Amino acid sequence: xxxxxxxxxxxxxxxxxxxxxxxxxxxxxxxxxxxxxxxxxxxxxxxxxxxxxxxxxxxxxxxxxxxxxxxxxxxxxxxxxxxxxxxxxxxxxxxxxxxxxxxxxxxxxxxxxxxxxxxxxxxxxxxxxxxxxxxxxxxxxxxxxxxxxxxxxxxxxxxxxxxxxxxxxxxxxxxxxxxxxxxxxxxxxxxxxxxxxxxxxxxxxxxxxxxxxxxxxxxxxxxxxxxxxxxxxxxxxxxxxxxxxxxxxxxxxxxxxxxxxxxxxxxxxxxxxxxxxxxxxxxxxxxxxxxxxxxxxxxxxxxxxxxxxxxxxxxxxxxxxxxxxxxxxxxxxxxxxxxxxxxxxxxxxxxxxxxxxxxxxxxxxxxxxxxxxxxxxxxxxxxxxxxxxxxxxxxxxxxxxxxxxxxxxxxxxxxxxxxxxxxxxxxxxxxxxxxxxxxxxxxxxxxxxxxxxxxxxxxxxxxxxxxxxxxxxxxxxxxxxxxxxxxxxxxxxxxxxxxxxxxxxxxxxxxxxxxxxxxxxxxxxxxxxxxxxxxxxxxxxxxxxxxxxxxxxxxxxxxxxxxxxxxxxxxxxxxxxxxxxxxxxxxxxxxxxxxxxxxxxxxxxxxxxxxxxxxxxxxxxxxxxxxxxxxxxxxx
Length: 636
Hints:
Elements: H1 3-13, E1 40-46, H2 50-53, H3 57-67, E2 72-78, H4 82-91, E3 109-113, H5 120-129, E4 145-149, E5 165-167, H6 174-184, H7 190-198, E6 203-204, E7 209-213, E8 219-224, E9 233-234, E10 260-263, E11 265-266, H8 276-280, E12 285-286, H9 289-303, E13 307-311, H10 321-332, E14 338-340, E15 344-345, H11 348-356, E16 365-370, H12 374-380, H13 386-398, E17 403-410, H14 417-438, E18 443-450, H15 467-480, E19 486-490, H16 493-503, H17 508-518, H18 532-541, E20 565-566, H19 571-583, H20 599-602, H21 604-609, E21 631-634
């Protein structure tokens, strides 16, 4: 179907759907090239609605990288909401790009972002609505090659039946290599195309790997069936971060995060044992202050956004955080520009720095201790003394903020009800400190999620909490946190259990995903859309037990579905850290002491060829030379 035909059909249905602005394109700063003048076409997809996908920085980075090339173009596509899907199927409209309304099937490459597992059924809808078979084996060279990347792809096996190739690691450079390779392979068979991209470091082609299972359902071995496929696929990293993306597209409608994000640092060295992102994004790479300041100015000039968020996993560990905040305050203090610096570890000095940001709205702070007893903080390797938490609260309240939000997890390994009681006691103590300073205006908002053992972390061996345990702990929290000024929010058991199935699933889970999708499952990340009963029926129909993937403890010697995916952190390091957690032993920040996790030796040659000064371990300014601060973020 031509773009003109799609446009005509869209004109008949757009006024019948909620928020037609999701589907029209034409945003300020969007890039529209002449289709016929460009040799290679890439569609970039975020498998959720426009309102969420437009805030995704990863899509924007790839959009810019591809469109820099004169011989390539990149256009965007998002999942359509239920009403639009129904009308598109009724009118026989294929999924289309926002920029030129070309059918997605007409592109050469479809790149799908998978930051989290709950998007899997949306991916199948996206592929199907584009008029393509959902299974990779049924698509030949007549269809665009489908690749997926993002944090969820560090365990690609649940989606192995549907995706042609996965990007393991960071995508800014590899997207161009894949595109160039496919451009050269135009006219070749799909199998030949896959062999060509499998030679690129960081590309995993599931078709070239066979999985055998033991009688108990665990994996016996994973083997390659093609000589070009490496036994272990080493992740791809960008050794020097490219200059920040600044020409953000100004959305047609209000989005969930209506602000411009600038990444100041990538990676984290804190070593929290539950943290998937902290393990897979090593090593740390930082941008200089001058580059960040130039990016802020460019964003203001090119977009008109009034709020900018400076992103990282642990912003206080950014070596130049003090210099950056001073520079921002000096230039923008009276401009009305709102800036947030998330993931700060904060004491009084850091609170002073945040004052300089000039955020007059005084929304509050978000504090993420994750556990409320010192025993549990040792176990998860996020040690913060209780007194330091209380002092942080005093510092925040004394500077005029009324609200502090705390994030905790329940379901940590070896957690007891006494540890859960610690959450209650700590939150009440914080509220008491606030009332001493600002009276009854003090508020403590508490968010509680259920811990999910993630791949490539030291806790990948531990079982997830059962329904009975989770509900007992939640009941305890709900019944004791009803005091005025305390506000509790929590994730229900079903959503955490669902994420656990998918995040630690093997290839057999793919058949469950497809069955659940065919029975109508969509938008599983939305609590009011997730249909647990249908998912359980899908598991039963496929002869699989969901608890096998969640509440079962793994033996140290077990082969995981993701063991052939190399995140560049040694499995021995993860085992040792897991055993340390059982003993309540902690590791210091690895900027202070290298624990030989494996990241530097695996990228030694690349480091020497690019920017050796940016790969020092430990860095010039180790964490020990700065004040140790708990993890706090300014609320948006």
